[in-house]
Amino acid sequence: MRKTHMKRFTVRIGLLVLATAGLLLVPVGEGHADPEKARACLDSMVSGAISSGMRVRGSDVAAAGNQAAITYRLTLYKGMDYVLLGCADGEGVDLDMRLYDKSGQLVSNDKSPDAQPFVDVSPPRTEEYALQVLVYKSNAPNTDFAVAVAYKF
Q1: In sequence order, what are the residues at sequence separation of 6 or more whose Cβ sits closer than 8 angstroms to the Cβ of residue 140?
Q2: N or C: which end of the chain has fewer CB within 10 A?
Q3: Distance of CA 86 to the CA centre of its chain
Q4: What is the DSSP string of 77-98?
Q5: Angle at 109 between CA 104 and CA 114, to 5 degrees
Q6: What is the value of pTM for the model shown?
Q7: Res 55 pLDDT > 70
């Protein structure tokens, strides 16, 4: 049986705020302790995104068991390019990401067999999307992971 945990993470930014501040996170759910390895890995990926001219809009750290997923809700804006980044701790971890539109249709995904998934997307319309982060394979009972939303105008 596949156990799915839902964690509501809403990023809603007005265009004016987006242009000036670029960051507003509203996490819902409980946090997880000691995710330093996942956060350090994500920081490296974020640095690469920033060096390519992107800005980071928000990030989160969570944990899930093998074959468990956490879903984030985020508003993505038409006319912008996004990279959704993830990084898990531990050896032999396969972390996947899937992005769904509000009608439940798969928009983009990364199912590569590694611990550092990313999804590139240029939304066809402004709306709320669901980003599912799945610990597809892990030898540990729980796997810490970190995710971030990077964007470019």
Answers
A1: 66, 90, 93
A2: N
A3: 6
A4: -TT-EEEEEEEE-STT-EEEEE
A5: 140
A6: 0.76
A7: yes
Residue 143 structure tokens:
């796997």
Which of the residue ranges 4-13, 26-35, 40-49 would you say has the lowest mean pLDDT? 4-13
Return the structure tokens found at 131. Answer: 């980003």
The candidate with the shortest Cα–Cα distance to 57, out of 3, 13, 6, is 13
Six-digit token pair at 129? 């999307």
Q: How many Å is the maximal CA-CA distance in the chain?
A: 45
SS3 content of the chain, % helix, strand, coil (to 5): 15, 45, 40
Question: What is d(CA 115, CA 95) in angstroms, rounded to the nearest whole number?
Answer: 5
Q: Where are the alpha helices (DSSP H) in the chain?
A: 15-20, 36-51
* Separation of CA 2 from chain center: 20
User: What mean pLDDT comes out for the span 80-104?
Assistant: 95
Distance CA 153, CA 147 (A): 20
At 100, list the tokens: 């769904």
